[in-house]
Amino acid sequence: METIVKYNEDALYKLRRRKIALGEMEGEITGYPSIDMPWLKYYTEEQILAPIPNMSALDYLKLLNNNNLDLPALEFLGKQITYLELFKKINDTTKSLSAIGVKPGDIVTIMLPACPEEVFLFYAIDQLGACANFVFPGTPLTEVENTMKEFNSTKLVILEDILMQPNNLVNNSKINIVTTSLTGNYNINASNLYTWNTFDSLKNYVEMPIYKRNQEEPLFIAKTGGSTGKPKSVVLADRHFNLQVHQHLNSPIDYSVGDRWVRVWPMFSASSAVSSSHLPLCFGMTTVIEPSVDIEKLDDLILNYKLEQPSL
Asked: Do residues 290 and 262 make contact, with C-beta atoms less than 8 angstroms apart?
C-alpha cells in the first residue's frame, strides 16, 4: 500500500511540473532539471499516470512479448533466435545455474564479450533470485578475483581465451567456473571447471526452481566509468530496468515491434544492460549482437542490417 501511495504522489508532482513547463500553471522554476523536469511537457497526462509495472525484469519481458513469440529476438553471427527460443534458453540456463549451486541472493560474476549467452544468463539469474556481476572482458584477472572476493561470488562465467592467462581461479575448489570458447575447442581441464556444453547438459538433471522475485531485490551490479576516480559498483534492481522500459513505452519515441537494434558492448554497464539489451527486447525488436565492430565501418553495419536504432 505504501508503494502505491508513493507512486501516486510522484505522479501528481509530475503533473504539476508538466503544467508549469507548459505555462498552464504558475510555479517556482529552480533551474535544476532534476526538480523542474522540463521534459514532462512532451508527455501526456495519460502517459504520466500510466501504472508502473511491479514485476521482475524477466516477467515484464515475457508480458510485453506474449504475441511476438515467433519473431526474432536475437541475431548473432547470422543466426536468429526467436522470442520463444529465447525463453526456452533462459529456462535451460536457469536450471543449469541451479545445478551448480546458484541460489537466491548469490552473486554470479560474468566476463564475456557481447554474445547471446550474456542474455540467457542475465534473465536466468533474475529468475533464480540471484544477482549478476558483469565485468568488462578487458579487466585483468587479478581485478576479477578481487571483485569476486568483494561480493563473495563463487560462480564465474568467462571466455576461456581470457581464463588462459595466469590466474588463481582455476583449481580453486571454492569457485565454480563455466567457460565459453570462440572456437568451440577447449584447452583447460580443471576439477572446478565446466565447458558451456557440459554446463548446458546439467539442465537435464534438475527441476525448474520456483522463486517469486521482488522487484526491489538486487539484480545487476553496474560499473561506473571512473570519471571521478576509481570505477565504482552500482547495484540496480528489477525496478530500475523496468522503469526505463516503462518510460519509453509511455513517450513519443517511436520504437516498434520488428525494429532492429545493434549492441556491440558487453553487458557490463548500465547503459548496455538496460538501454541496449532489456529495452529493445521488451519492445519486441531484434537485437543484433556484434562482438567486434570497427567504429570507422559503423555506417556499413547500419546499412547492411537496415538498423533503425544503432546503439553503441
From this structure: yes
